[in-house]
Amino acid sequence: MPEYFLGYLLIKYVAVELGWFPSLANVSPETPLGDRIFLTFLPMLNLVLVVVAHMMRLTRASVLAIMASPYIEMAILKGLPKWRIVVQHAFPNALAPVINVIALNLAYLIVAW
User: Fold this and answer.
1) Beta carbons of 10 and 41 less than 8 angstroms apart
2) Which of 49, 55, 82, 88: CA 20 to 30 A from 64?
3) Whole-prediction pTM
4) Are 69 and 34 in contact (CB under 8 A)?
5) C-beta of residue 59 within 8 angstroms of C-beta of residue 100
6) What does the pLDDT look like over 6-55, one tens digit per residue?
């Protein structure tokens, strides 16, 4: 889903219908930090939701690729519970590509905001 479309949905439902956050904000240098965070919450949420969706897909793909490894098959044959195999064996080994993409997306979030 494109970022601008998700932004429109957030404005319509979170700002207009629920009234939790302003749909339009003017932030000046004199605005206190707490008010700045409150006023810019919807744009930040929009950027973060798009990145989080990408991270979830990447994490799932990495874990599924690791689950086809021989040492995971050995753990299954040893009778280890599925949650333990995923948490202790697959997930730590699948984190390397996810951490690389998180670093790139963190730079994107800082520049885009």
Assistant:
1) no
2) 49
3) 0.63
4) no
5) no
6) 888 888 888 888 888 887 778 788 888 888 888 888 888 887 888 888 88
Query: Coil, strand or helix: which one is 26?
Result: coil
pLDDT in tens, 62-107: 888 888 899 999 999 999 999 999 899 888 888 888 888 888 888 8
User: DSSP H helical segments within the chain, as ranges?
Assistant: 3-10, 33-39, 41-66, 70-77, 82-84, 91-112
Comparing C-alpha atoms, which of 22, 21, 17, 41 is closest to residue 113? 41
CA distance readout (Å), 76 to 26, 69, 84, 87 = 57, 11, 10, 13
Q: Which amino acid is at 24?
A: L
Instruction: Give me the residue label for tokens 């207009």.
Output: 16
Q: Write down the residue that tokens 């439902």 correspond to.
A: 13
